[in-house]
């Protein structure tokens, strides 16, 4: 990718962010629920209409739509995401405090996923059409049909309650607390990724150079690890980037199941409490992370596969 | 008729899962008639009973029969998933065909919006939309539709672009066919098979996504029997009444497997490239 391409991508990201921010802002503006009433209800009291009206005025909710949007946008540029209605803290502080636990969980489950899906995918590709191929593929099929929240709850029941191997609830976000949520997330991802690894490796195995290498009498394991595997990495990295994105969303359900103090759990609380600034901030933050990851993935192509570079320059 | 049987005989895997799917749909349609208890009927005296002869799957915290509720929930879940897939397919393909056929401004607007949606994890937005619109099954369907149509728009657009340059389309235009006729006579029928296969393959996934929203409390509301919601309600009783979670989840898993397999085997039939590619590879290997 040339410098121009990178600039174009960055511009695209900015445009998408504008779109996303406008869309979420429209949505919260048009929403039927009243955040002021929700806020007071959360505090336990229902004040009279005058107080509510005064609060609305003070929060700037009575101004015209575009004025609200642009003042919000203006604040964003100054690093001010607004104040959360339900937590009465700056949105950015709240979001950042939850970001690391979610990132940690996502990275850990991705590591687990890779540790299983790459060997399994290679195995099924090499043993194509054999019994082991059918068995593993059958299992991956079951894996993608599992509702993640059900897997999580069953894991809590079996591992924590019945076998007593792990604590059910713990207040910290240490390693132990992360194991079950990460395994839950990794199960469905491993199922998807194993198939993708298989497809990518099979694609490479059918290339002429593999036949050539075999004809030269190279060892099968050498061909597989030295030639086929590095070549099949490229499509896999793209998919990894995409799955990191869906992971950010996927953690939501699992975080709720395990009461894990991450972004997803926060988002669900924010939506339930009609905490608009927090919802908007959350959606924007996820969009930024997701697009940054995808940009990095695209940039990494050149490092992994020099062919793309040559093609870009010609 | 004979042809149909020959077709089913040839594709046994598809036949099996199609039969299973028909069975599941039949059970769902007839569920109010065949369940032993009223799924809404609360008998507090019999709350949280373990599975047994009287209540096959046990009872929930209000003493409602879990078996009846699980069966009736298939109706809620299946119909909402079908409705969702229909909405997504119709809206997505319509926009995609329009974008592909007319090009120009329509194309740019539709594809830019779809670019925006694709550069973003869908479920996050779906949760925001479902939560803000207010929790209900209809709003959950709207939310998932809003974030999922792009896939179909891209697909149908690419299919339309592929046939747009064909001679017979030019001939049709030249002989004065109206735009409406062009769209419904040529564009839609050619892209329909691929779209339908994709839609069938998505049923299971959509069911899982809807159930996830319901589980989070942004979908069906109590006392509606719905698998995701039932598991949410049963969460608190994980230690004392695990059957509240085991059975709805297992039921859902089985149904999702059936529809996923159905979609997969349908694709294998309609799109033989998948199998041919496999065979060719084997030949290379043996050569």
Q: Considering DSSP H and I runs of 4 or more, what fraction of the residues of chain A is helical?
A: over 70%
Residue fraction in strands of chain A: under 5%
Class computed from helices, strands and strand pairing of chain B: mainly alpha
Oligomer: heterodimer
Order of helices and strands of chain B: HHHHHHHHHHH
Number of strands of chain B: 0
State mean pLDDT of chain A (0 to 100 scale): 81
Per DSSP, the total helix count of chain B is 11
What's the architecture of the domain at 80-241 in chain B in CATH terms? Orthogonal Bundle
Low-confidence stretches of chain A: none
| H and E string of chain A | HHHHHHHHHHHHH
Output the keywords.
heterodimer; A: 314 residues; flat; B: 287 residues; mainly alpha; MetI-like fold; disordered C terminus
Question: What does the model show?
Answer:
The complex is a heterodimer of chains A (314) and B (287). Helices cover 80% and strands 0% of the residues of chain A. With 314 residues, chain A is mainly alpha-helical. Chain A has two domains: 3-77, no CATH class; 94-313, MetI-like (MetI-like fold). The longest helix of chain A has 38 residues, at 220-257. Chain B has eleven helices and no strands. Helices cover 76% and strands 0% of the residues of chain B. Chain B has a domain at 80-241: MetI-like (MetI-like fold, Orthogonal Bundle). At the A-B interface, helix 1, helix 6, helix 7, helix 10 and helix 11 of A face helix 4, helix 5, helix 8, helix 9 and helix 10 of B.
């Amino acid at each position: 990718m040339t410098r121009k391409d990178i600039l174009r991508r960055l511009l695209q990201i900015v445009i998408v962010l504008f779109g996303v921010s406008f869309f979420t802002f429209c949505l919260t503006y048009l929403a039927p629920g009243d955040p002021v009433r929700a806020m007071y209800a959360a505090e336990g009291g229902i004040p009279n209409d005058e107080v509510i009206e005064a609060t609305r005025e003070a929060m700037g909710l009575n101004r015209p739509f575009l004025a609200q949007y642009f003042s919000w946008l203006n604040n964003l540029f100054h690093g001010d995401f607004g104040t959360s209605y339900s937590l009465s803290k700056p949105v950015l502080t709240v979001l950042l405090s939850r970001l690391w636990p979610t990132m940690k969980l996502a990275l850990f489950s991705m590591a687990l996923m890779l540790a299983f899906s790459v060997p399994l995918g290679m195995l099924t590709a090499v043993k194509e059409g054999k019994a082991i191929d059918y068995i593993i593929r059958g299992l991956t099929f079951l894996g993608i049909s599992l509702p993640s929240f059900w897997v999580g709850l069953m894991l809590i029941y079996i591992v924590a309650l019945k076998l007593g191997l792990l604590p059910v609830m713990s207040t910290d976000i240490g390693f132990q607390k992360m194991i079950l949520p990460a395994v839950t997330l990794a199960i469905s991802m491993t199922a998807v990724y194993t198939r993708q690894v298989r497809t990518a490796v099979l694609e490479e195995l059918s290339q002429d150079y593999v036949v050539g290498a075999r004809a030269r009498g190279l060892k099968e394991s050498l061909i597989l690890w030295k030639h086929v595997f590095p070549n099949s990495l490229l499509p896999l990295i793209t998919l990894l980037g995409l799955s990191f994105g869906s992971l950010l969303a996927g953690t939501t359900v699992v975080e709720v199941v395990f009461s894990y103090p991450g972004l997803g759990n926060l988002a669900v609380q924010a939506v339930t409490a009609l905490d608009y600034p927090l919802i908007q901030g959350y959606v924007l933050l996820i969009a930024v992370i997701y697009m940054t990851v995808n940009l990095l993935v695209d940039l990494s192509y050149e490092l992994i596969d020099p062919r793309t570079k040559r093609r870009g320059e010609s | 008729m004979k042809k149909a049987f020959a077709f089913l005989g040839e594709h046994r895997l598809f036949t099996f899962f199609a039969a299973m799917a028909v069975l599941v749909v039949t059970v769902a349609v007839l569920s109010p008639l065949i369940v032993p208890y009223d799924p809404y009927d609360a008998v507090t005296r019999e709350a949280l009973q373990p599975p047994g002869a009287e209540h096959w799957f046990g009872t929930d915290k209000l003493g409602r029969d879990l078996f009846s509720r699980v069966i009736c929930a298939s109706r809620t879940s299946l119909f909402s998933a079908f409705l969702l897939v229909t909405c997504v397919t119709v809206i997505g393909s319509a926009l995609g065909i329009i974008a592909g056929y007319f090009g120009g401004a329509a194309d740019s607007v539709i594809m830019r919006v779809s670019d925006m949606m694709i550069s973003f994890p869908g479920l996050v937005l779906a949760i925001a939309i479902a939560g803000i619109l207010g929790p209900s099954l209809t709003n959950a369907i709207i939310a998932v539709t809003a974030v999922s149509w792009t896939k179909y728009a891209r697909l149908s657009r690419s299919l339309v672009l592929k046939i747009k340059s064909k001679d017979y389309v030019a001939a049709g235009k030249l002989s004065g066919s109206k735009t409406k006729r062009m769209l419904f006579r040529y564009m839609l029928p050619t892209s329909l098979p691929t779209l339908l296969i994709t839609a069938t393959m998505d049923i299971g996934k959509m069911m899982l996504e809807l159930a996830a929203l319901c589980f989070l409390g942004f979908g069906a509301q109590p006392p509606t029997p719905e698998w995701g919601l039932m598991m949410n309600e049963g969460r608190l009783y994980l230690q004392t009444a695990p059957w509240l979670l085991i059975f709805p989840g297992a039921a859902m898993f089985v149904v999702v497997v059936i529809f996923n397999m159905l979609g997969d085997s349908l694709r294998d039939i309609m799109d033989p490239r998948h199998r041919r590619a496999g065979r060719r590879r084997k030949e290379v290997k043996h050569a």
